[in-house]
Specification:
With about 160 residues, the protein is mainly alpha-helical. The protein is about 60% helix and about 10% strand. It has one domain. It is globular and about 50 Å long.
Length: about 160
């Protein structure tokens, strides 16, 4: 039960922060109308984006079938993570929170696909003379951080001899 709680709270906060940030920046600050807000150029800018695909717009042909396939795939990955990490009594708390971050981020993007038909992206970061044309969102950050945590913290718990 403790494992499920850790996964739930990681997912809950990742989902909530993702959706709140999208509402704040895209709707409240009006990014959907303005399309661009310089925050700390060139390090941090808000640029409006509608992503019908996955990372970097891959598989973003705009077909409605692709939208539903991506929703189904996201939900299947969430279920697989719950079963893998949630059942593992030898998985540590960091693995459980990492799984929660992946799940919360994935569900944040699923919510966008259900509400809008695409994922809302708004973060753009460039540095050192390199101009990054891509935008992303906090859900993507949580998915990446959670996946890194799943890799880094797997096998950290020592089994008794």
């Amino acid at each position: 039960m403790a494992a499920a709680r850790m996964i739930f709270w990681g997912a809950f906060w990742a989902f909530l922060l993702d959706q709140a940030s999208k509402y704040l920046v895209i709707h409240w600050m009006g990014l959907s109308r303005r399309l661009s807000i310089d925050v700390l150029p060139p390090l941090l800018n808000f640029r409006y984006g509608e992503n019908t695909g996955i990372n970097f717009g891959l598989f973003g042909d705009g077909a409605d079938s692709a939208r539903w396939i991506l929703i189904g795939l996201s939900l299947a990955i969430c279920l697989a993570l719950v079963l893998w990490v949630g059942r593992g009594h030898d998985k540590g708390g960091l693995m459980q929170v990492s799984a929660g971050l992946v799940i919360g981020g994935a569900l944040g993007n699923v919510a966008d696909r259900l509400l809008y038909g695409y994922v809302l992206d708004f973060l753009n970061m460039s540095c050192c003379g390199l101009n990054n044309p891509y935008v992303f969102n906090l859900a993507d950050v949580f998915i990446f951080a959670g996946a890194a945590g799943l890799i880094l913290f797997e096998g950290r718990i020592k089994k008794p001899a």
